[in-house]
Amino acid sequence: MGDLYILNTRCKLTDKIRETFEKAGFKVKVSTDSGVSDENLKGANGFTAVCIFVNKCIKPEQVEILKENGNKLILHCSAGFDNSPTEELKAAGISAARVPSYSPGSIAEYAVTQIMALAKNTHMSYVMTKNADFEITNMQCLLLENKTCGVIGTGLIGKKCTMKISGLVEKVLCFDVYPDNEWIKTIPNASYADMDTVLKNSDFISIHVPLLPQTHHLINEEAFAKMKNDVVLVNTSRGEIVHIPSLIKALEAKKLWGVALDVFEGEKKYIFHDKSKAGFRDDPDLARLAQFEHVILSSHIAFYTDQAVDQITAKTIENYMGFVGKGTKDEKAFIC
Prior knowledge:
The chain is α/β, with parallel strands linked by helices. The protein is 34% helix and 15% strand.
């Protein structure tokens, strides 16, 4: 019997969580295989909780394995929990908890960094000068201070992004289904607007919405058609928000100045892995996307800072302690 079985995150989070739980006297095991195969899940036999990160996905049919294992709790070390089947877990009597928020500033900073990188052609300059190419014919940049940035979604991360980018641009247009009209007053050059207004008037767009049925493929062909020419698009929320075929079509039509995707549809088999030998041979859309010079793909690393790892770990062990009766249970952190 044990306390925590960690599905290896393939990042420093695994070591931090393991060390913290062991220091508190709990028995921990880390999976040797980083995947979520049936065999790997069977390794959690006898453990109270299974810890899972965003690069892992438990399928509905695998819940029976968890039940046979005697697992009682799924600990999501992330805010999102769409990578485990909530209804099936609930039916099996297995609880699930998440980390509602962790270092929103980390993700917001990454979004602003990518806007700057694309606007200033930093990524292009880096590659060219490595080869002693200092030509500037195609290196003209965008000035930020006379531009408008659109922020779609003003939860904790969207708010942080708005605050950080507001000092760099002339105006920030925000959209949220539930606008925070008191908060927006604290940023002089920011205001709420409807979605169409944000899309039509923004030079930069940063996405910060959760993945819900109504946000799935929110940025599609219709949305791209409404955007200004030479727009910069950044997504650090969930990959499925942006419809990849529509994005490719917009890029081929030279609609966009640049795109940065820290998340993308179909990312789970790529993120935190070295797939350089196989490349994108099984994903023609991603292969095409990677060919564009002004597209930056990254490995779901916007969250990955020292502060975020500390905060995720602290909340994860707090959730476990609350579940086993050794601490106060934060009901808001429990999904089921």
